[in-house]
Amino acid sequence: MVEFEEYSGMQILSQQQPQPTILTPVSDHACFVTIELLSECFENLQIQWECMDACLNLLKLMNSSPSLLLSSGESSFNNDEQDCGVLMSIGFGRQFLESILRNISNTESMNNQTNHHSEHSSPINFIKQYLKSSDFTEYPKDLKGKFGGFPNTGGDIFLHIKSNNMDGAFRCSMQVLNHASIAPHVKRVQDETFGFLHRKNMKKGLGRDLSGFEDGTENPKELEEKIEAALNEHGDSFLLAQKWVHNLKFFNSLPLKERENDIGRTMDESIELEDKSPNSHVARVSLVEEDGHEIEVIRQSMTFGTSSQHGLFFLSFANSTLTFIHQLESMVGVGKFATPEGHNDHIMRFSTNVLGSFYYVPSMKSLTMLIETMSPLVLKRHRTLLSREENIYRLSKL
Ligand code: HEM
């Protein structure tokens, strides 16, 4: 059994190629970019195809030889320069995906083309399934508790960039945002946050949140556990991105015991408290199913900010957004896992959520197949438009 699970996990890695920031350890630096696209991107399959194709090429380049890409347009890359160790993943918002599927089916019906996408030959069917099922749900609306809620601030494309230094994260973000097939379609960069690993423990490779508590202690460690938590059978993943602003003045004014009770772990050693309060963060977000199975996610959060405004950019990957919904609901004391109901996560006493959205993070294989499905439709439409223009030109010459 174990052997089979190992085999299928490895198979997903080699055949589907999940995006690279999901399973790799947290880096010293990161950049989180939330991009909103212009309305034309939702209506025009050609533009969508251009954007997706640019994303695929950037992912391939950035994750294979970032030094080449990071040096393009600047003076040539110098071997003496520090290796930035850049890794990038790209996620797509629900509305953007829905519009791509809609435009594919509209174009197919315009061309009187029948849909031959079989379960195995095209990602269209399983993306449709994600959108219909609980795999890629809408972001929760108006979910609020005693200490605040989770505003749905949207976003069409999300970049998760990891790097050894801020230089790499900065240049990678610039390269994507200046790309000729992406830049003209950007309505606005809603948020661009540079994160860093605060008080890194060199042995564990983990940092501490600004509250002083270690972050990432309970992240799955073994590769198989990580795969099970964050990927589905297609190597696809789903991402929750949330920006939290801390009130440290308030939190640090509390006695240490109270702060530990709020988190549910000790400050120094990050040992889980045996008599945790049901309002502690760990009690609220540890989801255990009726059969005792613990639902896991992979967190890749980072500290961000300046001395006047700072907090945690919370980033988490799971094989379904339903897991995030359960966690968020439980934080405000409602839903299936909030038993008994009414307990509010005390982390929200000192931190305010200011930005949040879900994204689909396709494997490289799913993204490639999606673009391959779009390509002939875009080309056919392009040819029809060209011949229409030629006819108009000919008529005008008569
Ligand atoms: C201000 C925002 C947040 C801060 C400062 C924070 C901090 C922490 C800390 C210190 C821990 C304990 C150590 C560890 O296992 O990593 C933890 C655990 C955890 N957090 Fe958060 N967190 C925040 C938001 C969230 C949100 C929004 C979610 C989910 C939607 C979440 C999910 C989790 C999970 C699943 C664990 C592991 C629980 C366990 O199994 O023991 N956190 N967090």
TrEMBL record:
Query: Which SUPFAM superfamilies would you find in this protein's record?
Result: Dimeric alpha+beta barrel
- Keyword annotations of the record: Iron, Metal-binding, Oxidoreductase, Peroxidase
Which terms in the GO cellular component ontology are assigned? cytosol
Query: PROSITE patterns from the xrefs?
Result: DYP_PEROXIDASE (PS51404)
The record, for Pfam families, names: Dyp_perox_C
A GO molecular function for this record? metal ion binding
Q: Does the keyword Ribosomal protein apply?
A: no
Q: Does the keyword ATP-binding apply?
A: no
Which cofactors does the annotated protein need, by name?
Answer: heme b
Query: Which residues does the UniProt record annotate as the domain Dyp-type peroxidase C-terminal?
Result: 208-365
* Protein name, UniProt field: Dyp-type peroxidase C-terminal domain-containing protein
